[in-house]
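Budget justification aside, the reviewers requested a transparent look at the raw inputs and outputs of the sequence design task funded under Objective 1. We therefore reproduce one unedited record. The lines immediately below are the structure tokens for a 284-residue chain.
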């Protein structure tokens, strides 16, 4: 039971089919434990044509801010007053702040991946990476990778044209990018040449694709570091296959929590202590 008073402020999540999101749990926990007065709700927008009205409602209802998720991260940009540098580069928003009547778009997925890589000590310098998927999350990863001294990036996707577009967007930043079809002949060579494998498709996701991995188990070797952006379940089929080969595995849960923490800091202006983040990761 939530008790709301006049000082309380509203936060929320805009997306479609998002009833199972962990975001309310994370943000309400943070607000509560930090003694703040924010309440986070799910705003499921079933019909794309209602998106504009939902954005206008942020101002009308004086909502402090929202996260934006699939499938609205790109479409939402045209309704905002301002976007930050990361959004300009990535073309996707996952956080909107109501700054005294002005709607400003940010992308904290990038911060999420950055923190995950830093905290787990993943070093990308002079490494070859296979990134599976070429959607919004993949773009955030490529943007991060562009700032590392990467040796080579294999962009692996079901739809080649989408991976080609992502390659074009970052060609100036990463010298060697090769596009590979997920079901194509070159997949095993790409994985074999890679040090790090990152899954940014929803394959492995609970309830929808749970027992599915984007690649066959036999392609994974002990030398690999395998990162799965899917965080539910914590150990996906891909991570289990990698674990069975004694490869290093990293779950996307930390990325989820750090992107949430960054959004929370943007909305509230409060800094979340690292110990609190660790507590969240262990208890979620
Ligand atoms: P997106 O923009 O819709 O992109 C989805 C990508 O997955 C596309 O490359 C798509 O390939 C591929 N894909 C989808 N279904 C597939 C299938 N059945 N077989 C093969 N490939 C398939 O979504 P997104 O925003 O990048 O998010 C992708 C996933 O990343 C989400 O499901 C979520 O679990 C995870 N994620 C995690 C975090 C985190 O904080 N840990 C943050 C963001 C996202 P096509 O181009 O061929 O359609």
């Amino acid at each position: 039971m939530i008790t709301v008073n006049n000082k309380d402020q509203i936060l929320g999540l805009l997306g479609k089919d998002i009833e199972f999101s962990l975001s309310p749990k994370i943000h309400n926990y943070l607000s509560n434990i930090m003694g703040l007065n924010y309440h986070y709700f799910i705003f499921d927008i079933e019909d794309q044509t209602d998106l504009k009205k939902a954005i206008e409602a942020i101002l009308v209802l004086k909502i402090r801010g929202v996260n934006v998720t699939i499938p609205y991260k790109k479409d939402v940009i045209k309704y905002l007053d301002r976007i930050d540098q990361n959004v300009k580069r990535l073309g996707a928003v996952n956080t909107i702040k109501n700054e005294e009547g002005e709607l400003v778009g940010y992308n904290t997925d990038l911060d999420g991946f950055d923190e995950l890589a830093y905290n787990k000590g993943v070093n990308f310098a002079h490494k070859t990476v296979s990134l599976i998927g070429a959607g919004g999350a993949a773009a955030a990863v490529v943007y991060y990778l562009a700032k590392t001294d990467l040796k080579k990036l294999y962009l692996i996707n079901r739809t080649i044209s989408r991976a080609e577009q992502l390659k074009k967007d970052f060609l100036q930043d990463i010298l060697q990018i090769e596009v590979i079809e997920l079901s194509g002949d070159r997949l095993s060579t790409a994985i074999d040449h890679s040090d790090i494998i990152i899954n940014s498709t929803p394959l492995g996701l609970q309830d929808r694709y749970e027992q599915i991995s984007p690649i066959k188990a036999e392609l994974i070797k002990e030398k690999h570091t395998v990162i799965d952006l899917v965080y539910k379940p914590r150990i996906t089929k891909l991570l289990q296959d990698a674990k069975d080969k004694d490869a290093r595995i990293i779950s996307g849960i930390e990325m989820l929590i750090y992107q949430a923490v960054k959004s929370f800091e943007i909305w509230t202006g409060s800094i979340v202590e690292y110990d609190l983040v660790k507590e969240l990761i262990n208890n979620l």
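The chain is about 35% helix and 20% strand. The longest helix spans residues 253-268. Computational costs for records of this kind are itemized in the attached budget.
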